[in-house]
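Appendix B: complex inputs.
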Amino acid sequence: MIYRQGATLLSLLGLFLSVYLYLYKLGHVGALACGTGGCETVQTSQWSRFAGVEVALIGVVGYALLLAVALAALRPAAAGRRGPSRLLTALAGGGVLFTAYLTYLELFVIHAICRWCVGSAAIIVAIFALAALDLRRLGPGAMAGARGAA
Amino acid sequence: MAAPPVGMKRFYVILGVVAAVGVGLLGYLLSKPSTLSIPANVTVQPSDTAGFRGYVKGSDSATVEITEYADYQCPFCQTFATLQMPTIDERLIKTGRLRWRYRDFPLQQHAYARVAAHSAACADDQEKYWAQHDRIYEGQSEWSASRDGADIFRRYAGEIGLELDAYDACMSAGKYAGRIQASLDEGARAGVSSTPTLLVGGRLYQGRFDSDAITKLVDSLAPRITRAR
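Resulting structure:
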């Protein structure tokens, strides 16, 4: 359960982080607390939108989804089931791939690093790792056992 | 329904505390008042207007000049800038027939008009006046309804490639407050009372214009001006 708890807590942190970046894009929170100019260079670049949607908004939706799944996975009824861990791993895996693409853009196209984006990258990688560890812990026989118990 | 085990209870307490702290921080950021405003009714110094007669595009040898008095937050000015100006630009300005002079006339009822004008003026320092001018008008519906237009103008400044440290210094110093006030005063003296207002050959034209009306106006004035030369 500790892996799922960790994933829940991290999803909540990721959600707050992306809400902050999205509020910045909407002009509600002033300048970004960043320390370097990198955050603004990244956030005001043409790559701050993906397929016409603000990347920060994609983050809000993604982390909200992860949080919902992680909370559902904490219910006693979901304990020992592989399904929630699989879903968490798949969602976080998608997030990791998307983050890898964004990090590539920061490093090789925009040539600026946003600390908040680095924070989000660390969070999504950690969620993915925790979900994968949980999946491994449960093993392939866990789902059948859970079905039998249900 | 069974009560959650003690370990889970502790976890939910921690989760609740993190959620409360996060919501509190975001609430604080949202409630923070804007720190940037451009002073109105400043005393205009001679240096504010020295050599400055508006933002100009078009050829020096164009036979007709139109001065536009406009307010960035005025909806008609926005429609004119985004829908009509591109045609006027292509048809008249780029062909050398018309020179366009843009002057600020921020109306008192528009909270962000002066900040918007100042943002464009600071972009002019980095020779990107028209890019910021166009971006501000394009985004009018976004910033006019926001809590802090200045932050959105700053984002636009980043998007058009301004060096933000210099932009911030210009904005926080209110470097062009006097120039904007001088433009407003000059417009008022000329009889401008609403926006957009066009000043063409000493006559004021108020209301809504389209590119065809401007073309006709230029057509009607060009031969007369050419003959008078």
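Residues 73 and 146 of chain A are 13 Å apart (CA to CA).
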